[in-house]
Design a protein that fits this description.
- The complex is a heterodimer of chains A (449) and B (514).
- Chain A is of the alpha/beta class and 449 residues long.
- Chain A is built from twelve helices and 25 strands.
- Chain A folds into three domains: 6-111 and 244-313, FAD/NAD(P)-binding domain, CATH 3.50.50.60; 125-241, FAD/NAD(P)-binding domain (3-Layer(bba) Sandwich); 325-445, FAD/NAD-linked reductase, C-terminal dimerisation domain (Enolase-like, domain 1, 2-Layer Sandwich).
- Chain A has helices spanning 14-26, 48-52, 67-71, 131-140, 155-166, 187-199, 298-313, 384-392, 397-402, 404-407, 417-429, 440-445, and strands spanning 6-10, 31-36, 74-78, 81-85, 90-93, 98-100, 103-106, 110-112, 125-126, 148-151, 171-174, 203-205, 210-215, 221-226, 231-233, 236-239, 243-245, 261-263, 274-276, 281-283, 325-330, 333-339, 348-354, 361-367, 372-378.
- In chain A, helix 1 packs parallel to helix 7 (298-313).
- Chain B contains 24 helices and four strands.
- Chain B is globular.
- The model of chain B has no long low-confidence stretch (mean pLDDT 95).
- Classes of the chains: A alpha/beta (449), B mainly alpha (514).
Chain lengths: 449, 514
């Protein structure tokens, strides 16, 4: 192995940056360059919405101070890559400048999906993924927008709705499915989120799709037509029907690409010394039965990055994700999930508790023998470590619920919802444990359930 | 903005303007009786003689009155100094009591009217502005537009507010004679509580307490649905009103020493000063109790409570400085500097102040027990330096005046010697930590942005590490603003509290230490 080999990583999102940082941790000699056209310094993509809403300034989304990169000898190159010369092992930038590499890591992330809708490229029509998207959106919604339409009910869609609500722009939210995000969420959870969206005065239209976007004389969006034939006047259209790998600049090269860059379990592409990680990588074979071939969340990007860095420095191991976890926030309601809870339970049993407010709920999925497969929780926080262990060790549902007080990650003095959950579980499934008791301080000062 | 908020804001502004105008009202006429009544025995004759040309004159403003005073008084005193007749120099500053005595103004004649117009309207307006905030919105994080706000992001409004605060502190500490109208205005309240006329410190304590109460209401609204935030806000409101404001005044009414039972040395830096000790020792059982209580707080309560709950038990639940920072200062919490450089400065400065306070106190005590044979009045000079540089300039002018520029915990973070002491206990011997929830962090930065102590919380959260920091005051806002439920303030076993090389869970391929 060449001691001073040059690892070039295209993309400075969470995958690329984790890879670079971990490489440096494991090998002090390797030369590392992070390439990005989007922004010189790493920032947290998930925080773009907070910049729009004035919770933060852009600089706050940068997890490391500028001197961090120098100190760790990670070189930063701000430029857009036009193509890669895999034979000569070099990148060609838009400026026609080139950069040689010994090892190339493609971590270019995603781009918003556009499904060929008429008018999808008009002014005032966009997705929200990159820093540039944020800038365009800020400009497009500065003034003169009396209504916005968001197309596609996923996590970015709900963020966009919240952002526009901050600017007091009324939002119509077109969602193809019967319930909000119901390809992921079971019915009750989808309903809970739907109710909360409407509580925020967002005009949620379920089972409604976009037909076309109509232009005005200046080439700006002026209205959308929905699948029900209705024309909704609007000046801004958010396209948030998912994302797909951003690999167009690599197509028509010897690199094998399907939807994303094809990789094996070691992130190896069909070309030696070229790897791909994060949103843009597509596994030949899904890494686990409960995983997809393309993994598009923050946490998987981070794991890809650290696993590949390890493989580049030490004996390679295949990527093996552990118990699935994810989280999100729907306006004011936080969501966490651990393990596997698909919307429909086959050969499984569900325990579901919902608070009287209709804004807090807990679902536990168990197999036919009562072993815990996964949980969904809304409006309440649960411990990752606890459920990682419980699901890995296949605890019974009863054991999990009996110890739920330990798993509660809500701040001190919050209402002890785990007690109500335990009581309901005892009623429905029985069990030989007693519900937790409120502490003296909790009784005196704590919030009521 | 709703109607009631507009009315509230309007009333508040009227009150503030009235408060700023009141010092300029009325006129000043000095008489010999006043001079005799407000000067010490040893200065009485000389002062009466020096100020004689001012008698029966009417001065239209505090400026002309005080400049006339200086015209008469300064040449005499400076003359003594230049002749090095140190024993005859009049070191006492009589400007405040004489200006207050000489004041003739409508404010003095109808104090309640002017009190209502200024502080009263500001409090009422502030309350009306706050008490219905976010009523139409579901509970949740309320940080919309913080960085688009001129007030909260060092815009013009922030600059004006900061400048007014700084001006107020400078006048209060060093030129109180210009504030006698305001002080006279709150005389009836002071007389009611303690039986004594008001000083500038009573005025300050009253405003301070009312500000915490009004802005505490804002906290209740902002953190609706968040019991932790509401409880600790209620706690600081209670401790300020009862312990810092009312009880000391009532003690005076009962002929006992003025004493704040929750103020702890070395924040309460004059606790061991000779005159304080004399006061305690001359006040019988009550005085002795105060002395013992104060010492027990230092040697038992601080280590014990900090071991069990972290320094938050004091800094964000009890302390008066903390109380102001957490209520009035809350809109500015995001302005703290999170850089590594700021952290380095912080550690040097805050521990230097602690060292200075400790050395000064040890010298004072040694000097006291040696009957002042050890250092003579050198400790007095040390006291006046500390009082000026740390007690007034740092804690007051910078500590509060700089809220809109550097965030609401400048004093607590860089200056407070008690915070430094609590911090050392918290860092090395405590059950408190902020737990990170496995691998759920998305590095968004809300926690770091809203950390008033400038802790880069995200640095820890994103690598799955518990936050154990000397400076953390446990306000819990990082946990409140986290969109993914990653942070939790906890007291737990010391074992594994500090996980230096954490491994983020969720990846079974490899285990990489941070």
């Amino acid at each position: 192995m060449n001691k001073n080999r040059h690892v070039v990583i295209i993309g400075n999102g969470i995958s690329g940056v984790t890879c670079a940082r971990t490489l440096r941790k494991l090998d002090s000699d390797v030369r590392i360059t992070l390439v990005s056209g989007e922004s010189k310094y790493f920032f947290s993509r998930t925080a773009l919405m907070y910049v729009y809403m004035g919770h933060m300034e852009f600089r706050h989304t940068q997890p490391y101070e500028d001197h961090f990169w120098d100190k760790n000898r990670i070189e930063l190159k701000q430029a857009w890559v036009e193509s890669v010369d895999f034979q000569a092992k070099k990148l060609v930038f838009e400026s026609k400048e080139t950069m040689p590499y010994d090892i190339l890591v493609i971590a270019t992330g995603s781009k918003p999906n556009k499904f060929g809708w008429p008018g999808q490229d008009l002014k005032g029509v966009q997705g929200l993924y990159s820093k540039q998207d944020l800038e365009t959106m800020e400009e497009a919604t500065q003034e003169g927008v009396t209504r916005a339409v968001i197309v596609g009910g996923g996590l970015i869609g709900i963020e966009m709705a919240e952002m526009l609500a901050y600017r007091q722009i009324p939002v119509t939210f077109l969602v193809r499915e019967k319930g909000f995000w119901d390809n992921v969420l079971p019915r009750e959870e989808a309903k809970l989120v739907g109710r909360h969206i409407r509580e925020h005065h967002i005009d949620l239209r379920l089972e409604t799709e976009l037909k076309e976007i109509l232009p005005d004389s200046q080439g700006r969006a002026r209205a959308v037509v929905t699948s029900t034939g209705e024309e909704i006047s609007c000046q801004f259209v958010g396209l948030t029907a998912g994302v797909s790998p951003q690999v167009d600049f690599l197509r028509n090269s010897e690199l094998e690409i399907n939807r994303g860059v094809k990789v094996d379990a070691f992130f190896q592409t069909n070309i030696p010394d070229v790897y791909s990680i994060g949103d843009c990588a597509e596994f030949d074979k899904a890494p686990a039965p409960d995983r997809k071939n393309i993994e598009q969340v923050w946490y998987t990007g981070r794991m890809h990055g650290e696993t590949l860095a390890h493989n580049l420095c030490q004996t390679p191991v295949p990527y093996r994700p552990g118990v699935w976890f994810n989280s999100a926030k729907f306006l004011d309601i936080e969501y966490q999930t651990y393990g596997v809870v698909p919307p429909r339970a086959e050969d499984a049993q569900d325990f579901y508790w919902e608070h009287a407010s209709g804004k807090i709920c807990f679902r536990m999925r168990m197999d036919s023998e009562g072993k815990t497969l996964g949980v969904n929780v809304f409006g309440m926080r649960l411990s990752h470590g606890f459920f990682d262990q419980a699901i890995r060790e296949k605890w019974t549902g009863q054991k999990v619920i009996a110890q739920l007080a330990e798993a509660n990650f809500d701040p001190e003095f919050f209402a002890p919802h785990h007690i109500s959950i335990q009581q309901l579980f005892l009623g429905e499934f029985g069990g030989d444990f007693r519900p937790a008791k409120k502490s003296f301080m909790q009784k005196l000062f704590g919030a009521k359930v | 903005m709703r109607g009631i908020e507009k009315i509230g804001l309007g009333l508040f502004l009227v009150g503030v303007v009235a408060f700023l105008v009141i010092p300029f009202l009325g006129s000043y006429s000095l008489s010999e009786e006043m001079v005799l009544a407000h000067t010490k025995d040893i200065h009485r004759d000389k002062m009466a003689e020096l100020l004689a040309p001012m008698y029966a004159q009417e001065y239209g403003s505090s400026f002309s009155f005080l400049s006339a005073y200086r015209e008469q008084f300064n040449p005499y005193n400076e003359g003594l100094k230049s002749q090095q007749l140190w024993d005859e120099v009049i070191w006492d500053d009589y400007t405040f009591p004489l200006a207050k005595a000489a004041l003739q103004s409508p404010v003095r004649d109808s104090p309640w009217l002017f009190f209502g117009l200024s502080i009263g309207l500001a409090v009422l307006g502030g309350f009306l502005y706050n008490f219905r905030q976010y009523a139409d919105e579901p509970t949740g994080v309320k940080n919309n537009g913080v960085f688009h706000s001129s007030m909260k992001n060092r815009g013009l409004l922030g600059m004006i507010t900061g400048s007014l605060l700084i001006l107020f502190y400078v006048v209060l500490y060093w030129f109180p004679a210009y504030l006698v109208n305001l002080v006279a205005m709150v005389d009836p309240i002071s007389v009611f509580l303690s039986g004594n006329p008001s000083s500038q410190w009573f005025l300050y304590g009253l405003i301070y307490t009312l500000a915490i109460l009004v802005m505490g209401v804002r906290m209740f609204r902002k953190y609706r649905g968040n019991r932790y935030q509401q409880l600790r806000t209620a706690s600081v409101m209670f401790f300020q009103t009862a312990f810092a404001f009312l009880i000391p005044e009532i003690l005076v009414l009962l002929n006992q020493p003025y004493f704040d039972f929750k103020n702890i040395w070395p924040l309460d830096y004059d606790f061991f000063y000779d005159y304080q000790i004399s006061t305690f020792l001359s006040a019988g059982g009550v005085g002795m109790f105060m002395l013992i209580w104060g010492v027990l707080l230092i040697i038992i309560a601080v280590p014990l409570f900090t071991y069990f709950y972290g320094k938050r038990w004091y800094c964000s639940w009890v302390c008066g400085c903390g109380g102001l920072a957490e209520t009035v200062g809350d809109p500015y919490r995001q302005l703290s500097d999170k850089s590594l450089k700021a952290w380095k400065f912080e550690r040097w400065i805050v521990h230097s102040v602690l060292a200075l306070a400790v050395v000064m106190t040890l010298l004072t005590i040694a000097n006291y027990f040696s009957g002042f044979s050890l250092l003579g009045n050198v400790t007095n000079q040390l006291h006046s330096f500390y009082g000026f540089a740390i007690g007034s300039a740092f804690a007051g002018v910078v500590g509060t005046g700089f809220y809109p520029f550097m965030g609401n915990r400048v004093w607590c973070r860089f200056g407070c010697p008690l915070a430094a002491y609590l911090g050392i206990v918290q860092r090395f011997k405590s059950r408190f930590r902020i737990t990170t929830n496995g691998g759920q962090c998305i590095s968004c930065g809300n926690c770091s942005t809203y950390c008033e102590m400038g802790i880069d919380v995200r640095w820890y959260a994103q690598r799955g590490q518990n936050v154990v920091r000397a400076s953390c005051v446990g306000c819990g806002v990082c946990a409140s603003v986290c969109p993914r439920g990653v942070l939790k303030l906890e007291n737990g076993p010391e074992q594994n509290r500090i996980n230096e090389l954490p491994i983020i869970i969720g990846n079974d391929s490899i285990k990489i230490k941070a």
